[in-house]
User: Which sequence fits this backbone?
């Protein structure tokens, strides 16, 4: 085997493996997205199906409302019949001396052999069983009931006089691919999702812009300015990353009570625009910029702010995009802190994560609505991540975290 062929097979195998793993990762999102367009009964179908489907109905003469269509076996052919009645008790009968030959008949049409008062019996497997008159090919034969089940009554839409009995659970409904985008409208109206989406967007943008501002200024100060205790202050600030969030909840909540920001949107923004990770990321990036460029700008009379704005900022686009992406995803998906600080009954200040938590209880019997709400919450950050992925990869491959 030549080197070219070996390389081709290796690359092909790598693409196949990566495609398989990519499908595994994407499948839950696709299932959520397609289920959000289903009707409630379609979400409980077993086995589940990916694409949304809707059962077809037909209007039949003599019935007030449309009847669902099913495929039934009509003399060996699959035909479309309407389900007129779904709970007809069917008895399975057999002659006492020929138990292997069974006949299915509606129980309400079968009469006891000898009448209700003097019903005859037969011994079957050492046990007496009551006999019933079952008509077979024009003859009435005494038989015992071996089992009982439930059938449905199906009628031919073109000829309502023609009926068939068949097990409904084993019958396949006539369906068509469809979609119910009104699920999203219903979710918005049910849980005021539009206001939650607006609040989440406002909070996320404010946190992202605030974090970028404080991180850029802090990162530049720790990277380029000389002042007493700079490195020690930076180490202490960086060490706050190691403090678990659960340790901060109680003192942070008490601080919000003292300020008067409980149940206020400001509590979702101000505490989170100061990021030790963001400051560290920007500092490490600014360190990689040659000092000679900054010294030349200072000689030309540029101020520190001008150097930061016209030299450092354009060069740090990958780092800014990386920080903005991480901050956006964190702020958009934040749940625990909004749950603590925002009153559940105050829907005017809800963010999407709180609305989804309430929707989970209100629409517990409608998974399609819950997943529609989840799609509203997931799609925007997914789009942002896809658009910013190029900058993120560029930051990782080109800048790194150099000291």
Assistant:
């Amino acid at each position: 085997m030549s080197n070219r062929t070996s390389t081709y097979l290796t690359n092909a195998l790598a693409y196949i493996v990566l495609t398989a793993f990519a499908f595994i990762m994407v499948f839950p999102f696709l299932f959520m997205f397609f289920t959000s367009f289903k009707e409630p009964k379609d979400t409980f179908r077993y086995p589940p199906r990916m694409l949304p489907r809707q059962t077809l109905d037909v209007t039949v003469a003599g019935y007030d409302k449309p009847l669902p269509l099913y495929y039934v076996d009509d003399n060996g052919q699959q035909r479309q019949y309407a389900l007129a009645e779904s709970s007809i008790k069917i008895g399975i009968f057999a002659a006492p001396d020929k138990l292997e030959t069974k006949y299915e008949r509606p129980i309400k049409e079968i009469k006891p052999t000898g009448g209700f008062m003097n019903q005859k019996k037969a011994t079957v497997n050492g046990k007496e069983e009551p006999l019933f008159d079952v008509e077979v090919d024009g003859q009435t034969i005494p038989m015992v009931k071996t089992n009982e089940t439930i059938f449905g009554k199906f009628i031919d839409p073109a000829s309502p006089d023609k009926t068939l009995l068949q097990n409904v659970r084993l019958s396949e409904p006539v369906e068509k691919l469809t979609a119910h985008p009104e699920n999203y409208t219903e979710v918005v109206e049910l849980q005021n999702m539009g206001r939650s989406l607006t609040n989440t967007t406002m909070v996320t943008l404010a946190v992202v812009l605030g974090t970028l501002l404080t991180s850029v200024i802090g990162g530049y100060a720790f990277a380029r300015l000389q002042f007493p205790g700079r490195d020690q202050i930076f180490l202490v600030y960086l060490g706050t990353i190691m403090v678990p969030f659960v340790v901060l909840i109680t003192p942070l909540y008490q601080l919000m009570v003292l300020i008067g920001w409980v149940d206020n949107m400001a509590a979702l923004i101000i505490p989170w625009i100061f990021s030790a990770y963001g400051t560290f990321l920007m500092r490490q990036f600014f360190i990689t910029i040659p000092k000679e460029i900054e010294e030349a700008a200072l000689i030309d009379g540029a101020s520190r702010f001008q150097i930061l704005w016209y030299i450092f900022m354009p060069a740090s686009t990958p780092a800014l995009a990386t920080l903005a992406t991480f901050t956006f995803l964190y702020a958009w998906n934040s749940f625990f802190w909004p749950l603590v600080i925002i009153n559940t009954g105050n829907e005017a200040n809800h963010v999407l994560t709180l609305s989804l938590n309430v929707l989970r209880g209100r629409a517990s019997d409608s998974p399609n609505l819950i997943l529609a709400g989840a799609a509203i919450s997931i799609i925007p950050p997914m789009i942002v991540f896809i658009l910013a992925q190029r900058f993120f990869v560029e930051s990782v491959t080109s800048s790194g975290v150099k000291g």
Remarks:
- Residues 3-53 form one domain.
- The CA atoms of residues 6 and 12 lie 10 Å apart.
- The first strand starts at residue 53 and ends at 55.
